[in-house]
Write a structure and sequence with these properties.
294 residues, alpha/beta, two-stranded parallel sheet, 9 helices, 40% helix, globular, binds NADP nicotinamide-adenine-dinucleotide phosphate
């Protein structure tokens, strides 16, 4: 299977190259090879390379900056996703795309199920939701994997920020009233590969991917707050930094974030026949630099 992968220098994109490598012939593209704000370039590249599967982890992910850069966020997170979907459909190819817990408004305390009503609180979430809508309308074989609180050993993320700050400060004040599941980028990539393998094997025509309709929630198991996540990072990394709980209201940011970011992953667990690896376990493996076997 020929697999086009975007955003290969991103947290998830980088891991996807490793996870998808055994499953097909990869066509990896970074921003220099394909700027997703250029629809004509997207069409030309897809038509020239003719992938059977497009995996699109590329995204505009600067949540706070998106409040000021609405147009750019929508260009990458919505318009480009629709164009990729149209081109996939034109070739009879499938597309796997990633979305976010930020499509929800964060009310209540129950994990969000896939069918739950959306209501993004910020521009980033709204742009990702529009990308979901455009892809669903454009491409009949698509899979939208909504994930949360992504971290890993590269890129810009909470884990690396905490490890850096813990070298500089003995105490840190961290938000304790936003709840979700930290999710390792490698876990996302390995789970994506498991889904690709599963669907490819089930298909009579193994070169194509027949996807379940609608989004799927993909996150490590369990839940915590940002403060809880920080404490576990410091415990595992042997840092003595003390975490002080603060409410989100004491840490104002340009973009509002949901208080309840829990994602219900039951549908994905049923599909794969395995539970999601608990977040502390995944974090421990990430910090040890171990390989994931999702
Ligand atoms: N990070 C999170 O906490 C989080 C949470 C929930 C869902 N998600 C979703 O998960 C997916 C993967 O996120 P991630 O954390 O891996 O993102 P990331 O590390 O920020 O990587 C995003 C990638 O997209 C590329 N990109 C941005 N604008 C582009 C453009 N105009 N043309 C081409 N490439 C462009 C970036 O290229 P450069 O390397 O050149 O900048 C980067 O490689 C995304 O769909 C994201 O919305 C992320």
């Amino acid at each position: 299977m020929k697999i086009l992968v975007t955003g290969i220098h991103g947290q998830v994109g980088f891991e996807l190259l490793r996870s998808l490598e055994p499953l097909g012939e990869l066509i990896p593209v970074d921003r220099a090879a394909l700027d997703l704000t250029r629809a004509d370039d997207i069409r030309a590249l897809v038509r020239a390379t003719r992938p059977e599967l497009i995996v699109n982890p590329a995204a505009y992910t600067a949540v706070d900056r998106a409040e000021q850069e609405r147009e750019l966020a929508y260009a990458v997170n919505a318009t480009a996703v629709g164009v990729l979907g149209e081109e996939a459909e034109r070739l009879g190819a499938a597309m796997i795309h990633y979305s976010t817990d930020y499509v929800f408004d964060g009310s209540g305390s129950l994990p969000w199920r896939e069918q739950a009503a959306t209501g993004p609180l910020n521009v980033y979430g709204a742009s990702k939701l529009e990308g979901e809508r455009l892809l669903a309308g454009a491409c009949s074989q698509h899979l939208i994997l909504r994930t949360s609180w992504v971290y890993g050993l590269r890129g810009a993320n909470f884990l690396l920020t905490m490890l850096r700050l813990s070298r500089e400060r003995p105490n840190l004040r961290i938000v304790c009233d936003q709840i979700g599941a930290p999710t390792w980028s490698r876990f996302i990539a390995d789970t994506t590969a498991a889904l690709v393998a599963l669907y490819a094997i089930r298909q009579e025509d193994r070169t194509r991917l027949r996807c379940a309709s609608g989004p799927l929630h993909l996150a490590n198991g369990g839940e915590t707050s940002w403060a809880g996540f920080a404490r576990e990072i410091f415990r595992l990394a042997g840092r003595s930094t003390v975490v002080e709980d603060i409410p989100a209201s004491a840490y104002p940011t340009p973009a509002q974030r949901p208080a309840n970011s829990r994602l219900d992953t039951a549908r994905l667990e049923q599909l794969l026949g395995v539970p999601m690896e608990p977040w502390p376990q995944a974090l421990a493996r990430c910090l040890k630099g171990e390989h994931c076997t999702a």
